[in-house]
């Protein structure tokens, strides 16, 4: 592929001249969509749907965070109380209300148009995450336009879109995909203001568009996940102020009006929850959740460096190119564009590595900066020619290893090799192999596009076909299905030994979480009642049943695997003898 236009500098975007001899259908597709922003946006949305929709509708609720978020939203819809956040009778004040409102809007809309059983369809609760993921991809394109060419911005958006981590978050009813959207929006606006100042531009009437986007995005991010978005933005601003020895450009963000606008958006709910719960929300969310992450919260502690190790998987297929781009990005650190992107990336990354609690999605808001830095180096033809080039093999190894693991797990759990997934596995391997073999300085873009196609095949095979077939991993769905098939009307349940949030979401808010003895007492209290007793609690159930003279039988037994606790389980569904 012959370069026919000057290499852009970070922070000085320009449009490329027509390239000669595209040489590939994939390159030709990029040429076609680069013509206009509308084509580009349509193309990126379609890519997002191809990458995110497999498994979106048919993967059951995932324990534990997704099921907790969904159940809390479900209770909001059931009660009509959109201020308080609860999981059954317990308050859930770890996060603000933003994601619950978005999920509730999706469920209420589906119910209004007549979708049956909308409140227990987990994919409805995932819609905000899907919108957030695709929106973040589009905003990464918009943000990248401040640094690289339109063609480069498309590639940066594709890197984020195809990343393993974003693909997972787009399918989970949690906050992180929507938080990513707000962070990219804020950073894109901040970048335009900063680079305008660096270029010496001093308009008589500075536009309101960037300040409006910036402060609105901050408000949305606070309502989604509290002050975390302020950390990303604040560390970026402080780093740039130290390096430049000036922060005068911040006045272009109209901070007085902006702060007032942000407060108008966030304060009403915070006042409402303070009126309802007093200091409990702030104690639980800031002290009980955010500050507790300084320690090893919920057994998720890990040493520094874990995020760097995970990066090579979670940022695939962009990771190999990012490794090759790292030396050039560091050499360009004095250029305004690279300086901004590194200020976005490095300080927050250091904070996350230093904090003991580590979960892969914490660093997701930093991935757009890495994608743009990577494409900046690719466009300037300064990717490393050192041993880092060997990382191109990663484009083939990840699909190969993931495919083998997926098929082996399927055979172990279901005794079925999921043959339907094999053609898509083959597609992922073929395009991953092409990406590896084709790689050189002149064809890095073509290798990247082949790797993105490999990611599409891999997503279809793993998320769309293999994971939904792993029914033993989702015992709550099997239990709920068994209860829906009973003859009696309005079944009620009590669970002993298996208390996962997905069970409450699937079987109903009124599901009693108790022990074996409590399940026997529950079963005796009326007809159309079912005791869901895990094998380790059956002895206590049987002893109590004998003591109170309860006559019961086994309606069904569900064999499965509790992924939260990492152990096999066997849940018996007991019913009283007069219940059908």
What distance lies between the first and last C-alpha atoms, to the nearest angstrom? 70 Å
Q: What's the total helix number?
A: 23
Task: Give the amount of beta strand, in percent.
Answer: 5-15%
Low confidence ranges:
1-8, 13-23
- Cα Rg: 26 Å
Based on secondary structure, the structural category is alpha/beta
Instruction: Give the biggest beta sheet.
Output: 5 strands, mixed
Written as H for each helix and E for each strand, in order along the chain, the element string is: HHHEEHHHHHHHHHHHHHHHHHEHEHEHEE
Principal-axes shape call: globular
User: Got a strand count?
Assistant: 7
- What value does the average pLDDT take? 91
Strand order of the largest sheet: 4-3-5-7-6
**Helix percentage:** 55-70%
Summarize the SSE layout with pairings.
Layout: H1 25-33, H2 37-52, H3 65-79, E1 86-87, E2 90-91, H4 98-112, H5 122-144, H6 150-162, H7 164-169, H8 176-198, H9 209-225, H10 228-244, H11 255-277, H12 280-290, H13 306-314, H14 319-331, H15 336-354, H16 367-379, H17 394-414, H18 422-438, H19 444-469, H20 475-484, E3 492-496, H21 501-507, E4 512-514, H22 516-524, E5 529-534, H23 538-548, E6 552-562, E7 567-576
Helix pairs in contact: 2-5, 2-6, 2-19, 3-4, 3-21, 4-5, 5-6, 5-8, 6-16, 6-19, 8-9, 8-15, 9-11, 10-15, 14-16, 15-16, 17-18, 17-19, 18-19, 20-21, 22-23
